[in-house]
């Protein structure tokens, strides 16, 4: 017997983007991908959230972990990058954006629980992907993150090859997201894909029923 | 380079395994037309230490029925020994080799009855005359036949791989290669899995045990 009305459970649960995010570089650019599920406990509170957030024209970050923490970091760095790019008079480097994210993640590592993958294109080094987990900063050929990433480490280890072109990278990202969304209860919805190269930035959505299917579907 | 990130998260964020001599592991079993292939790694860890780096986690329940052990070492081995005994009695009673489903049911009965006390997951696989090669998962007391099953802590990392790579109608060599690749990928990512790979192939002609040493395992792009 309940004597007090506490309201639905999900109002008191932390809102997390338990998620799957991935970023991969190719010769000439990067491809980022994410799922679209935001959960609070057992409830899905947003099934169409775009977790690929722009930090600058040609630099994006992928959000995972606590939704509030991740979004706040992205907004702060977006502001800092605007200021920085005015100061230097040109587009910022991807490494600079990643360093700004890393600085916040490291300084507040006890308070925050978010992991942002930073990826983009700049004139100096082309396409780059940086992981900033818990305040480290490392450039990698590709990075995966979020709760769904555990299920696809084996797949990306086996399938990644150096020297893939843009279409192959996009397919790799879509396949990885689809596999992770099938296995991880905290990932799902649609897949957002962002491709960045020297010509510009292209955002795409792959709806649930258009995602690749596997043997048991 | 990529390993750096995930080593960090193991050290600072995540659990480092139970300290009671548990197995935690990667195990896999897959059926093909005519038999089954089972595979496991060989690491037994207690906390951060590896207490046995060459343990064979593929345990015979009968001539043509094996089980793969994961979870708590003591619990898993005990279940396997009890079922091995029960199957001996049962096969004498019926006067012929037991069915794989019978072995799996015996394992399931123990796992379900003592589900609060035990923490082990056994995958049962084998060959019998009636239904050929079969793989059964018995996690937490359920009993389900599957084309293939993965288990243990390392299995999380390879769900994506097995989902993408599994195809119906693979033959014996392809299944063995699938098992070795899966184990290798899981052992690279899971701190609680490692060592060598044990492979057991069971078909109507008999049972074949094989060991793939660490340096003979398939390597991937960053090794």
UniProtKB/TrEMBL annotation, chain A:
Keywords: Cytoplasm, Hydrolase, Immunity, Nucleus, Protease, Proteasome, Threonine protease, Zymogen
Protein's name in the database: Proteasome subunit beta
Organism of derivation: Neolamprologus brichardi
Description of how the protein assembles with itself and partners: Component of the proteasome complex. The 26S proteasome consists of a 20S proteasome core and two 19S regulatory subunits. The 20S proteasome core is composed of 28 subunits that are arranged in four stacked rings, resulting in a barrel-shaped structure. The two end rings are each formed by seven alpha subunits, and the two central rings are each formed by seven beta subunits. The catalytic chamber with the active sites is on the inside of the barrel. Component of the immunoproteasome, where it displaces the equivalent housekeeping subunit PSMB6.
UniProt-listed PANTHER family: METALLOPROTEASE TLDD (PTHR32194), PROTEASOME SUBUNIT BETA (PTHR32194:SF12)
Active site: 19 (nucleophile)
GO cellular component, as recorded: cytoplasm; nucleus; proteasome core complex
An example Gene Ontology biological process: proteolysis involved in protein catabolic process
An example Gene Ontology molecular-function term: threonine-type endopeptidase activity
Primary location class: cytoplasm
Pfam families in alphabetical order: Proteasome (PF00227)
Family stated for the protein in its record: Belongs to the peptidase T1B family.
Catalysed reactions listed for this entry: Cleavage of peptide bonds with very broad specificity
Subcellular localization: Cytoplasm; Nucleus
Summary of the function given for this chain in its UniProt record: The proteasome is a multicatalytic proteinase complex which is characterized by its ability to cleave peptides with Arg, Phe, Tyr, Leu, and Glu adjacent to the leaving group at neutral or slightly basic pH. The proteasome has an ATP-dependent proteolytic activity. This subunit is involved in antigen processing to generate class I binding peptides.
Lineage, uppermost ranks: Eukaryota, Metazoa, Chordata, Craniata, Vertebrata
Automatic annotation (TrEMBL), chain B:
Major site of localization recorded for this protein: cytoplasm
GO BP: immune system process; proteolysis involved in protein catabolic process
Reaction it catalyzes: Cleavage of peptide bonds with very broad specificity
Subcellular location(s) of the protein: Cytoplasm; Nucleus
Domain of life: Eukaryota
Subunit structure: The 26S proteasome consists of a 20S proteasome core and two 19S regulatory subunits. The 20S proteasome core is composed of 28 subunits that are arranged in four stacked rings, resulting in a barrel-shaped structure. The two end rings are each formed by seven alpha subunits, and the two central rings are each formed by seven beta subunits. The catalytic chamber with the active sites is on the inside of the barrel. Component of the immunoproteasome, where it displaces the equivalent housekeeping subunit PSMB6.
UniProt entry tagged with the keyword Nucleus: yes
Organism: Neolamprologus brichardi
Similarity-based family: Belongs to the peptidase T1B family.
Coiled coil (residue ranges): none
Any GO molecular function: threonine-type endopeptidase activity
Residue numbers annotated as active site: 25 (nucleophile)
UniProt keywords, alphabetically: Cytoplasm, Hydrolase, Immunity, Nucleus, Protease, Proteasome, Threonine protease, Zymogen
GO cellular component: cytoplasm; nucleus; proteasome core complex
Name of protein: Proteasome subunit beta
Pfam families for this protein: Proteasome
InterPro entries, sorted: Ntn_hydrolases_N, Pept_T1A_subB, Proteasome_bsu_CS, Proteasome_sua/b, Proteasome_suB-type
Purpose of the protein: The proteasome is a multicatalytic proteinase complex which is characterized by its ability to cleave peptides with Arg, Phe, Tyr, Leu, and Glu adjacent to the leaving group at neutral or slightly basic pH. The proteasome has an ATP-dependent proteolytic activity. This subunit is involved in antigen processing to generate class I binding peptides. Component of the proteasome, a multicatalytic proteinase complex which is characterized by its ability to cleave peptides with Arg, Phe, Tyr, Leu, and Glu adjacent to the leaving group at neutral or slightly basic pH. The proteasome has an ATP-dependent proteolytic activity.
């Amino acid at each position: 017997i309940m004597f007090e009305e506490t309201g639905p459970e999900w109002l008191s649960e932390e809102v997390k983007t338990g998620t799957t995010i991935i970023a991969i570089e190719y010769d000439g650019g990067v491809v980022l991908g994410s799922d679209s599920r935001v959960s609070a406990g057992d409830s899905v509170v947003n099934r169409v959230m775009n977790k690929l957030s722009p930090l600058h024209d040609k630099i994006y970050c992928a959000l995972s972990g606590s939704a509030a923490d991740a979004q706040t970091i992205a907004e702060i760095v977006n502001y800092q990058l605007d200021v920085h790019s005015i100061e230097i008079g040109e587009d910022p480097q991807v490494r600079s954006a990643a360093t700004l994210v890393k600085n916040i993640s490291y300084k507040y590592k006890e308070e925050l629980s978010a992991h942002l993958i930073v990826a983009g294109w700049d004139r100096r080094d082309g396409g780059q992907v940086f992981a900033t987990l818990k305040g480290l900063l490392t450039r990698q050929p590709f990075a995966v993150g979020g709760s769904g990433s555990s299920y696809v480490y084996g797949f990306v280890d086996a399938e990644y090859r150096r020297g893939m072109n843009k279409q192959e990278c996009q397919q790799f990202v879509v396949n990885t997201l689809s596999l992770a969304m099938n296995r991880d209860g905290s990932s799902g919805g649609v897949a957002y894909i962002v491709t960045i190269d020297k010509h510009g930035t292209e955002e795409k959505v792959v709806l649930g029923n258009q995602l690749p299917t596997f043997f048991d579907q």
